[in-house]
Automatic annotation (TrEMBL):
It is found in: Cytoplasm. Its EC number is 6.3.2.-. NCBIfam families: murE, PRK14022.1. GO terms for biological process: cell division; cell wall organization; peptidoglycan biosynthetic process; regulation of cell shape. Keywords: ATP-binding, Cell cycle, Cell division, Cell shape, Cell wall biogenesis/degradation, Cytoplasm, Ligase, Magnesium, Nucleotide-binding, Peptidoglycan synthesis. The modification N6-carboxylysine is found at residue 235. This is UDP-N-acetylmuramyl-tripeptide synthetase.
Length: 507
């Protein structure tokens, strides 16, 4: 794939992004050199050739990266600032991230137009709902569905690799989309993080279906959002960038979402677990915690009323399942594909279940903020009212600091035993983090233990659990590493640690 400088000039001028060109230390508005083909794009100076267009972007970008690349032969750079380097051409723009998105989508020949693109946003449930949707669309399209999720990415519908970010940089996004198209994919499911809008990773992309799952305070910190208002604002930009929306009426300040969607004339379906004003609601089947009935409040225009089965415990997963059901119907799946896909969906590290040799229930779940831990423990308490809840949990170092107090608050209310441990401590001392959680557990009846070694903490929980009790191992899901002092230190994963220990008990 290639793109000419003339085309780039045209694109940047149309979007009013071009400031000037730098050529032989002089500045120009019109392209000062002959039209040339750009053969590659990169935002990493370590990965450029002479004909690459190099994007100078990022908090930690240093001029020396560009200098080194130019010394090695790089001819073209694009940046918000002119640099005194000996390149052939500098393209100076008002917003490098918007320019990168725009140039990338055209370089990769607008792959989004050859795919049905589905975008999930929300504080919680993006990965789970993306997986439900993937399983349904796999049924409907015979595995022609690509997916970009926090954990895993697949561009051929079948083979997965680990994702670097929830929503990739625009350049990577369009490269991956183009690969999905060349692999014959018809649909693409994406998780759209608030950072994706804040950093213009999805600038100019229109989603065929956008889904707003929920919002709660999270991701506030130095490299994320300054305030909850900024976080919520970034998330809801998905609405104006979608052709159709699926909205959860239980979302905080739902009227705002509704007004925004209606004012932009975007058709939408609203769903809820409780609100009878929504287009669709669900309720748990009386005879099974893993089955639920979907009902339309007026016309069943999507033809989805009926009973569905899922494998994932927790009421929040019925919310996720209904959102996916509505989404896939909009995207053209049949009701049969939806029934089958929902019934088969498993998500690594989300509500994974094990049974202790004494019969106790063990859940491994990725809950790592206030609302997800609260939902998880509320579910465990209501599903096992006669037993104790033993919770193994830590909180990350260097970010999400407010989660420590939040966890203390939830544990005080909803657990019987709290085993506080390490969870990606980063540069901080995990014992200090555990002490911070502990000091926020304002309930003397809660038994507390601090066991910094996560493997030992899980083993301790499994060694004290009674037959009617439940163990909840929260926070890391299937993560196979602990972030410690800047190093991804290998870790077996919560599920495997629990599974191995159970095996030793059986022998
Ligand atoms: C705040 C943020 O989103 N930062 C992301 C962003 O960083 P950045 O653009 O500021 O770039 P940088 O890492 O400071 O580096 C500067 C630039 O120099 C370049 N470089 C570097 C070295 C060199 O020799 N030559 C060179 O050219 C780098 O390629 C880079 O382009 O772009 C980088 C990749 O280009 C990301 O790795 C980085 O993610 C950071 C690590 C991160 O943790 N981001 C989180 C907050 C995030 O985005 N999370 C959301 C999910 C949130 C949720 O759970 O909902 C996500 O979508 O993943
Ligand atoms: N709809 C929901 N509402 C509240 N909590 C949920 C919901 N769905 C899942 N959860 C909880 O949040 C955890 C993370 O779920 P999931 O990975 O699907 O969400 P996510 O939005 O991708 O999260 P993250 O942004 O943290 O990667 C689950 O393990 C579960 O505890």
């Amino acid at each position: 794939m290639t793109l000419t400088l003339n085309k780039i000039d045209d694109l940047l001028k149309k979007e009013d992004l071009l400031k000037e060109y730098v050529y032989q230390n002089n500045w120009y508005y019109n392209l000062p050199i002959a039209n040339t083909e750009i053969k590659e794009l990169s935002y990493d100076s370590r990965n450029v050739t002479a004909d690459t267009l190099f994007f100078c972007k990022g908090l930690n970008f240093k001029e020396e990266y560009l200098e080194k690349a130019v010394d090695a032969g790089l001819k073209f750079y694009i940046s918000e600032n002119p640099y005194e380097v000996n390149s052939k051409l500098g393209i100076i723009v008002t917003d490098i991230r918007k320019a990168m998105a725009l140039i990338s989508m055209h370089f990769y020949e607008l792959p989004q137009e050859k795919l049905t693109v589905i975008g999930f946003t929300g504080t919680k449930g993006k990965t789970t709902a993306a997986y439900f949707t993937k399983f349904i669309l796999d049924e409907a399209t015979n595995n022609k569905t690509a997916m970009l999720s926090t954990m895993n990415t697949t561009l051929d519908g079948v083979n997965y690799f680990k994702s670097a970010l929830t929503t990739p940089e625009s350049l990577d996004l369009y490269k991956m989309m183009a690969e999905a198209v060349s692999n014959g994919m018809s649909h693409l499911i994406m998780e759209v993080s608030s950072q994706a809008y804040k950093l213009n990773r999805v600038y100019g992309l229109t989603f065929d279906v956008g889904i707003f799952l929920n919002i709660s305070p999270d991701h506030i910190g130095p490299i994320e959002h300054p305030t909850f208002d900024d976080y919520y604002y970034c998330k809801r930009r998905l609405i104006e960038n979608s052709k159709r929306m699926v909205l959860n009426t239980d979302t905080k300040d739902y009227p705002l979402l509704k007004e925004l969607t209606e004012s932009k004339n975007i058709p939408y379906y609203a769903y809820s677990s409780t609100d009878k004003q929504a287009d669709y609601t669900w309720e748990t089947a009386v005879d099974s915690l893993l089955e639920f009935n979907v009902q339309s409040t007026h016309e069943d225009s999507l033809d989805i009323n009926g009973r569905y089965k899922i494998k994932l415990m927790g009421d929040f997963n019925k919310d996720n399942a209904l959102a996916s059901l509505i989404t896939t119907k909009i995207a053209g799946a049949s009701k049969e594909a939806a029934e089958k896909g929902l019934a088969e969906t498993l998500v690594p590290g989300r509500m994974e279940h094990l049974t202790h040799p004494n019969g106790a229930n063990i859940f491994v779940d990725y809950a790592h903020n206030y609302s997800s831990l609260k939902n998880l423990l509320s579910f465990a308490k209501s599903a096992h009212p006669d037993g104790k809840i033993i919770t193994v949990i830590g909180s990350t170092g260097d970010k999400g600091v407010s989660r420590r107090a939040d966890f203390g608050k939830v544990l005080a209310e909803l657990t019987d035993v709290a085993i506080l441990t390490a969870d990606d401590p980063g540069s901080e001392n995990p014992k200090d983090i555990a002490m911070e959680i502990s000091s926020a557990i304002d309930n003397k009846d809660i038994e507390q233990l601090i066991i910094v070694d996560r493997v030992e903490a899980i083993q301790k929980a499994l060694s004290i659990v009674g037959e009617k009790d439940s163990v909840i191992i929260a926070g890391k899901g299937q993560d196979k590493y602990q972030k410690i002092k800047g190093v991804d230190t290998p870790y077996l994963g919560d599920y495997s640690v629990a599974e191995n220990y159970i095996e030793t008990l059986k022998n």
